[in-house]
Each structure stands twice: as structure tokens, then as C-alpha cells.
Amino acid sequence: MSPDDRRVDPLTGARVRVVAARQARPNQPRNDQCPFCVGGIEAPEHYDVKAFPNRWPPMPDDRAEIVLYTPDHDAAFDDLGRVGARKVVDLWADRTAALGARDDVAYVLVFENRGPEVGATIPHPHGQIYAYDEIPPIPAHELATEDCSLCAPPPAGLLVARAGGWRAGVPRAADWPYGLLVAPDRHLPDLPGLDDDDRDGLADVLVDVFGRLDRLFDAPMPYMAWFHQRPTDGGAWPDAHVHLHIAPLYRSPNTQRFVAAAEIGAGIFFNPVRPEDAAAALRDA
Fold first, then answer.
1. C-alpha span between 218 and 208 (Å, rounded)
2. What is the pLDDT of residue 21?
3. Which of 18, 100, 175, 237 is most buried, by the most CB atoms less than 10 A from its CB?
4. Domain coverage including residue 137
5. pLDDT of residue 1
6. What is the pLDDT of residues 4-50, one digit of tens each?
7. Which pLDDT score is estimated for 40?
8. What DSSP line would sit under 155-216, residue for residue?
9. Terminus-to-terminus CA distance in the chain, angstroms?
10. Model pTM above 0.90
11. Is the separation of the CB atoms in 154 and 169 below 8 Å?
């Protein structure tokens, strides 16, 4: 069996990569030692932030990495403060540049899954990076539009926070009840292209919004988050505007929002929370 088994559903056109080797990966650490804490198998020496190849990669040739945000096992992202968050931003940018410089990488996706509800098996603060040899369909669709919708600021009623030239708001057609879109006011293409002030601003707005999500229901918010940025296939991509999608899972305290059959089957989402109300709640959090 090929280690890179790609298939296309002839009915739907969906692209699938079969990665049977990942079925054997452990769901939990085998002992009490967190592998991401200092002294653990992935971090034997002290670190501030750290990136390394995933032991259970979904694609070959070291094109999947783990990113550790802090040695503090119990920290939330907003606990990092600007200084700690800036170190994470710098590492994201450095790894995007390094992976994107490879001839076999066309797109770098920086992302995080937080919480067991999303499938995260290790609670230590961390994210991941996948380096694709093609441009995935969803960012490709965003890039295919003629006008950059991110250059226009969101309506005031949907804006949640601003910091250092960055803004966070609830999309008008949010598919997750408290979903957020984080973007710079300027038309900046990717993480490596951010200057010092841009990176400080991103660090500040991330600390702000992730703290709001945890305060919203007075509990750690499980979420999925992913950056879309300029492809690394050598094209100019003048319409690329780097941004972060955040999909929080709770729609009310301890109540998860599930994407179920009608939404998957039709491709039309049903959001139980009015985006303007979500933005107001997050502003108050």
C-alpha cells in the first residue's frame, strides 16, 4: 500500500487521503509523563517554543509538524501574554517559510485543535502544521474570488476586538455559533511577511480573543483554528490576505454544537446563534 494513497470520490468529487498507519497511533500518553512537557519524549530539553516532525504523520517526508506553545502544561493561550504569544507567531512564520521553501510544498496550513471534544488527545498547549504538495480546495476557493472581502472592515455590530492593526469579528454568515475571523487591516499575504509591529498586533489580538472564548461560558472553550495564507507554489497570488478562522464548539455552557446530517448532506449550515448576538456576548466577555 502506498504511504500516500490519494483518492477522489467519483460522485461528490471529494478528495481523500487514506492514511491507514495513523490508525495505530496512541490516543493518550502511555504513562503519566506528558510527551510535550520538559523531559518528555518530544521535549527532553528546556524550550520556550518548539516545532518538530509528527511521529504519526498524515503525509510523508516530514510535511507534518507539531508546534509547542509553552512548557507550561496547564496554560491557556491567553496565559502566554504578548511576549509568549509573539514567540508562537514567530515560530509559525519561521516554519511556514522553511516548509514553503521546499519544492514539494505548495501550501502551508497552520492550525490547532483544542480540547478532547475536537479530538485533541494531549492537553498540553500545542498546534500543528501541514505542508501540502497542492493547494487544498477550501483555501483555493477563497483565493479564486476576484475581490478581497477581508480588506473591508466588518460591520460595527460584528466586531469583537482590535489590536495593533488586527481585528477579530464574527462573520455575518458564521457557521459556528461563536465563530471568529481574525485578519489584519492591511492586505498582508502570509505569516512570514508580517513585520515586527504586525506580529505584535497578531499576538495581542490572539491573547484577547482566546481569553474571551474561555470567559464566555466561564470554562475552557474547545475550538478548531486555522490560518489561511498565500500559497508557496511560486505564484504571485496578489489577492492572498492572511487570516485566521476560529470555530469554537460550544453554543451554550457545556452544550456542544454538532454539525449533523442535514448540514453535511446539503452543504448548508444552520447556526442557532445570531452572529450579532454572538459578537455582543464576546465583546462583553
1. 15
2. 80
3. 100
4. 5-284
5. 46
6. 799 998 998 889 989 888 877 766 666 678 999 999 999 999 999 99
7. 93
8. PGGGEEEEETTEEEE--TT-SSTT-EEEEESS----STT--HHHHHHHHHHHHHHHHHHHHH
9. 50
10. yes
11. yes
- Burial code (b: 16+ CB inside 10 Å, e: under 16) for 105-131 equals bbbbbbbbbbbeebebebebbbbbbbb
The residue assigned the cell 510523508 is 60
- Which residues sit opposite 245 in a β-bridge? 181, 226
User: Which one is catalytic: 126, 228, 243, 245?
Assistant: 126
> The CATH number of the domain where 33 resides is what?
3.30.428.10
Mean pLDDT by 10 residues, the chain (285 residues): 79 88 70 88 97 94 97 98 98 98 98 95 96 97 91 94 97 97 98 98 98 98 98 95 98 95 95 97 97
Phi-psi region of 12 (alpha: psi -120 to 50; beta: other; left: phi over 0): alpha
Number of domains in the chain: 1
Q: What distance lies between CA 273 and its chain's CA centroid?
A: 22
What pLDDT score does 140 carry?
A: 96
Per-residue confidence (pLDDT) for residue 259, from 0 to 100: 93
In the residue annotation, 46 being an active-site residue is answered as: no
- Point out which residues pair with 7 in neighbouring strands: 16
Record the cell numbers describing residue 145, joined without a space.
474570488
d(CA 150, CA 171): 11
Contact 166, 182 (CB under 8 A): yes
- Do the beta carbons of residue 56 and residue 25 sit within 8 Å? yes
Strands (E) across 9-104 are located at 15-18, 50-53, 64-68
